[in-house]
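From: lab user (bench 3)
To: helpdesk
Subject: output format question, protein + magnesium ion

Hello, I'm new to running complex predictions and I'm not sure whether the block I got back is the full result or only part of it. Here's what I submitted:
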Amino acid sequence: MADEVIRVAGLTHRFDELVAVDGVSFSVSAGEVFSFLGPNGAGKSTVINVLTTLLPMQDGEVVIAGRDLRTEPDHVREAIGIVFQEVTLDRDMTVAETLEFHGRLYGLPREERRTRIDELVALVELEAKHDTLIKYLSGGMKRRLEIARGLMTRPTVLFLDEPTIGLDPQTRARMWDYLRQVNREGTTIFLTTHYMDEADQLSNRIAIIDYGRIVAEGRPYELKNALGQDLIYLETADNARARAVLEGTPNVGAIHEKGGGLLVMVADDGTRVLPHMLDALRTENVAVTGINMKKPSMDDVFIHYTGRELRDERAENVATAVNRAGRH
Ligand SMILES: Nc1ncnc2c1ncn2[C@@H]1O[C@H](COP(=O)(O)OP(=O)(O)O)[C@@H](O)[C@H]1O
Ligand SMILES: [Mg+2]
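Helpdesk reply: Thanks, we reran it on our side. This is the complete output you should expect:
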């Protein structure tokens, strides 16, 4: 594809015995916002670190902005901007000094540095903090400055690893606005996140990654629509029995456990399937204590493809450890 900015095929990365990234393939077109959505430990940072040359290539093919990562890493580096998961700013530099230093590091001419700094400080609304030391900035301001720094060299593609982690909801929403603006001005964006709403709201396309593998990929509405028109959430006196009963009911698809109840995917209009489900449960004497019908959300997509919720980080990590031990 002519307008392909990132092409990754069969990317695999190991840390000793652990297969952190396991045969990942995807491509990103010019002008897209492409997100990797996955839980802690899924392999998101490892992928981004390999793509941005921070980790060595082990197995697979990566082409970024027309350059092969294995043979032309320097050219790849020139074509990209990076915003890391952790804050990597020097606390004792000012906003302007940070950008100036980065511009020099990349050999931007003095005049270009000056205009670029003015443009970017305006873009992320840090004009008033131009000469303020980093250590006096809020978390959101630091993230904004990091985005500005990532854009100093006018990259073809900007990589962001969990750009809004730890920020309050309002600050996150503003960050999305900045990123949309950056994208409108022509920069392709690759980001990782474990926030469903972030992936949903910001992306043209999402890849869901779990245990180092892409388990689903598509446009947000495609991923949601693929689950059906409606989802039915049921709370019952006996979820295990309810599940067994419902599995034999016409038009009932996949069933997942969610928040103490059952999330039922149906292959028809929910208002038509629900009465049959309730009849079947009544016949088998399974009491229904709660019902909710709704359109699929990104949360539901995630549960459907990974088999679990992303809420409980602790349970998540235990599950990860167990599964890894079993698989590798
Ligand atoms: N430098 C490293 N050495 C050993 N294991 C690592 C290293 N970096 C990451 N891992 C492991 O690789 C897996 C993927 O990690 P990571 O890519 O950071 O996931 P994510 O960014 O999705 O949270 C995890 O199991 C993590 O513990
Ligand atoms: Mg990470």
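A quick orientation on your result: The mean pLDDT is 91. Let us know if anything else is unclear.
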